[in-house]
Design goal:
It is built from 12 helices and 10 strands. The protein is of the alpha/beta class. The chain has one domain (about 5-330): NADP-dependent oxidoreductase domain (TIM Barrel, Alpha-Beta Barrel), CATH 3.20.20.100. Helix 2 (about 60-65) links the parallel strand 4 and strand 5 (about 75-80). Helix 1 packs across helix 2, helix 1 packs parallel to helix 11 (about 290-295) and helix 5 (about 155-170) packs parallel to helix 6 (about 190-200). The chain is globular, with a radius of gyration of 19 Å. GO terms for molecular function: oxidoreductase activity. This is Aldo/keto reductase.
């Protein structure tokens, strides 16, 4: 396992990070989830990403159970705040001081830890002044409940504004967590340059495009039983943007490239995001331990310029590059 610095900080994290969105407490049974975490630990993964909203707080509890007995100082545990949790009352959402301060205590209790290494704003909150949010984060850092602050799916301008206020408050704002893959590159034109400018790096989710880049979905064929495309708990909705025959046909053109490099298509996809110097880690999820072991093999893989060119040529015009779509992940209003 290779390790990279998170943003401009001194913190190092495993470049393959294990995330439990859509799985723990939801899609897979606890025993299977725990087996996947143990496979991650055995493979050298030290960084684990979750959020209070995943399975409406249950994912944090499952992760804590899976990590029981591990030396806390040898792990990097990340969680997030923003989306509705609990009974989903009027203050159970957003980045208000009330919701943040209550949420960090709930997350620490469920994760069975005194602190998280990274506490992330899961989205931008247009209903709360940025100063209120950042001061609450500063208080959490100074109390020792979180060591670093990050965000998820913020636009370039929002990252710049957050970084400026974090600098004024003297707290370490180090990361953004966006969707990024060989098919979904909307952060490249604006978000990455802004992040480099202010010392923030990316912890990217869905490097295999919800499984599409594994090549298991083929044009004109029904999705395999039990795959994410057939999941009715949120998986099929997320993968829908890629489940077009033109995309699936282009993805199949990556197979010869992967074969030549003795990589699986999933390994090629994870290795691809790690070639970007502003990416600190690729988040992988799993429902079976063998998926963890396969994806971890992408750590340390170097793709030369010719391979990167061939990947671009294979995917062609199905690559999404529109920077304006970053704003679509940044809500105009809080979710109900």
């Amino acid at each position: 396992m290779k390790f990279r610095h998170l943003g401009a900080s001194g913190l190092k994290i495993s470049e393959i990070t294990y995330g439990n969105w859509l799985t723990h407490g939801s899609q897979v049974e606890n025993d299977a989830a725990i087996a996947c975490v143990h496979a991650a630990l055995d493979a050298g993964i030290t960084t684990f990403d979750t959020a209070d909203v995943y399975a409406n707080t249950r994912a944090e509890s499952v992760l804590a159970e899976a990590l029981q007995g591990q030396r806390r100082e040898s792990l990097e545990i990340f969680t997030k705040v923003y989306f509705p949790t609990g009974p989903m009352g009027h203050n159970d959402v957003g980045l208000s001081r009330k919701h943040i301060m209550e949420s960090i205590d709930g997350s620490l209790r469920r994760l069975d830890t005194d602190y998280v290494d990274l506490y992330q704003a899961h989205r931008w909150d247009p209903a709360t002044p940025l100063e209120e949010t950042m001061v609450a984060f500063a208080d959490i850092v100074r109390s020792g409940k979180a060591l670093y602050i990050g965000v998820s799916e913020w636009t370039a301008d929002q990252i710049r504004a957050g970084a400026a206020m974090a600098k004024e408050l003297r707290i370490p704002f180090v990361s953004n967590q966006p969707q990024y893959s060989a098919l979904w590159r909307i952060i490249e034109p604006e978000v990455i340059p802004a992040s480099v400018e202010v010392g923030v790096s990316q912890i990217v989710w869905s490097p295999v495009a919800q499984g599409v880049l594994t090549g298991k979905y083929t044009p004109g064929a029904a999705a395999p039983t039990g795959s994410r495309a057939t999941d009715d708990k949120g998986g099929s909705e997320m993968i829908g943007r890629f489940m077009r025959d033109d995309v699936l046909e282009r993805v199949q053109r990556l197979r010869p490239i992967a074969d030549e490099l003795s990589l699986s298509m999933a390994q090629l996809a994870v290795a691809w995001v790690l070639q970007n110097p502003n990416v600190s880690a690729a988040i992988i999820g799993a429902s079976r331990p063998e998926q963890v072991r396969e994806n971890v093999a992408a750590s340390g893989v170097v793709l030369d310029d010719e391979v990167l060119r061939r990947i671009d040529e294979a995917l062609g015009d199905v690559i999404e590059r529109d920077a304006a779509k970053t704003a679509l992940e940044s809500p105009d209003d809080r979710p109900a």
